[in-house]
Amino acid sequence: MSTDPETTETAAETAEPADSAAPTASAEPATSAEAEDTEGPGKAENAGNPSPELSEAEAELEAQRQERERIERRKAAKQGPVESGAKLSGTAADLLAAVRAVESGAKPVAGAFSEPPPAPRRAAPEPVRQPQRPVAPVATPTAAPVPPEEAVTAVRSVLAEGGAPAALAQGAAAALGAGAEGVLREDPWQLLRVPGVRPEQADGFARALLGGEADPGDERRGRAVTGWLLEQAALAGHTALELPALLTALGRYAVPDPDAAVRESLAEGEALVFQDALDTPGGTGTGAAESRAVRADDGGGEDGAEEEGQERPVRVLVGLERYALAEESLADGLGRLVNSVPKQDGTAESWERAAEAAGRSAAELIRAVAGHGLVLHTGGEAARQETAALLRAASGLGLRAWGATHGAGGRERLAAQVAGDGPAGTAGSGSAGSGSGEGSASGVDVAGEVPPGAVTVADLLSGGPGGPGRDTEGAFALDLLLVLDAPQLDVETAALLVESMPDGARLVLSGDPGVLWSAGPGRVFADLLAAKICPQVASRTPDPGPLGELVSGIGIGELNQVAAPGKEVVIVPVRDAGEAVHRTVQLVADSVPRAIGVPPEETVVVTPGHGGAVGTRVLNTALKERLNPGPGRFGGFDPGDRVVYTPGPGRAVPGRVLGADAEGLRLECAGLPVVVPRERVEQVVRHGWALTAHQAVGERWPAVVAVLPGDAVPALSRPWVYTAFGRAERHLSVVHGVEQALPRAVAEVGAKPRTTRLGVLLGSGTER
Questions:
Q1: pLDDT digits (tens, 9 = 90+) for 324-353
Q2: Cα(703)–Cα(727) distance, rounded to whole angstroms?
Q3: Mean pLDDT of the chain
Q4: Distance between CA 378 and CA 162 in Å, rounded?
Q5: Is the pLDDT of residue 284 over 70?
Q6: For 190, which DSSP code?
Q7: 377 near 481, Cβ under 8 Å?
Q8: Alpha-carbon distance 379 to 734, whole Å?
Q9: C-alpha radius of gyration, the chain, whole number
């Protein structure tokens, strides 16, 4: 099985220089649902909502567009003459001069990148080979307007001339916009902007169109490959790449002059360059004193931290504007929250009474929120009771309090916990609420107050049903926002959330730092924890029972044997892939229902990847044949099939097939009807008995079967195992075929590093 979750090994490390073969008719376009056999940090299927009215995805993108315009206006207002950099010399000074030349309309000087760059604190990993996922929501074929048929036809004719698959036509027309046909004729390497296309395929296409004029050193090719590498880096979770890593990757893709390719990309505005000033010469990665986006205003050069004539060590990074803008906006917004005075709803005495009534485990969180605009909260599943107690207390004090979760399942659990209906999703004995709030309410009289609400992050941003809505200035109509599953926030989503927070409101980010990071670029929650710019409350409420003990041990790098008198944890050894599939189906269909009492529809299978002999495709095929056999007459689906629907990048909503008609495939997802157009089914709907860990994150099921076949060893890491095992509420079966690789991965393999700038922008020494 091809498995590669969270990897930062890049395509450049494994690929040979571009070959001479053009794309063939058999090279299907890569889609987010089918092209990639591995799960990665950037994994997210393309999405769309087929409603003839404004769809959920379109509404979310419209909200994002408005927020981006607002951010860009604010950034533009701060633009002005840049007087910084007076004390920089050498490469750093040349780099600053080069970018200033670009801003004035000229191209960078030829020597801007000719000198060896300063030694980075740690070489940034190169971008991973995960071409199937679009870089961001605005670029997805789903979100963009469907291109006119005549435009698709014109592009199809150009692709035919270049020997590229006609199936790429719609994606190319959507990605390149109006005049896509002319764009491809003028610059065939623009084909790299279509998701799934690789440099060697674009080279073949260019040779077919341009003949002998298609030279590896063509500046158009250099710019296109530079942009493609930065996009692949984003798929791997990076918001920027260190310059040495980018130059090395360009060389491995047969770009003869990587320096020139980067200069051209900067000159054309297709990339931005940044300097992160380091505290100490040689920078160890623990003392970033200043971050400078050399294309923006700053006040550097005035701190006197260096002696005259001494070159200041810097880390030079190159990134795409959209992520640079998001990180800068996020840092500014977080600073605004940290430095603001929260709205005084309730006296200090009333907050203290609420804290005392909530119980000792939630009291510290409530006290921190009382006096601060930004608070971080960490803990496992049981700690969610503390956040529910906070929402109840805030509502009782008259605040408009809302909780936002990553997925619909988390939203339902939060709503049940706020209502005092018990642990609602915690594992084992059902005692998870102990210590996190003695009683079903905060102890504050909430009569006459608006009860706290629960919503998904996607619905919150898009103005979906059940959310708080926005005020006349576009800010959220709330006083306190609690965001659960905070590790799943990528930089763009986090920036939109923070920019939408009204002045005087409180933001609480809560999550389990041990789970897999976001599908999109960035490591927002981890960077904030490292930055230490606001109060941090660590829950002391342990997850109960054998499952809680097992997962807690994994979180600190220990795979312990736990006593499971109620068969809460069962290990099923297997020898090969065939036996793994057989035993998995047997567990879901027979053993777990009979021994544990959990029916198949409440059991989920978690496996490292989509492809391979024991990937989600093979397992879902076997499970469908056993649990809901049928001809698959609706695009491979039958009524009653369990599915996972991806309405947006990084989102996976479990559902069930109801049927199909002329409008498309009809699903029920989180209790709501969804209609997926026929042409989108293959890209946004998968069978859902078996999921990857990234698809399962944020959700919980009564029983989980974690499948670890022998070829899954490269995919295993502590965050992956922690996430997969932690999805189980009552029972976990481990189909075990990796022998000693499992405890070794738990003990030694942590999260793959991501290169981000948020920690530096916040003024921290965030390790990378």
A1: 999 999 999 999 999 988 887 778 899 999
A2: 8
A3: 79
A4: 53
A5: no
A6: G
A7: no
A8: 24
A9: 26
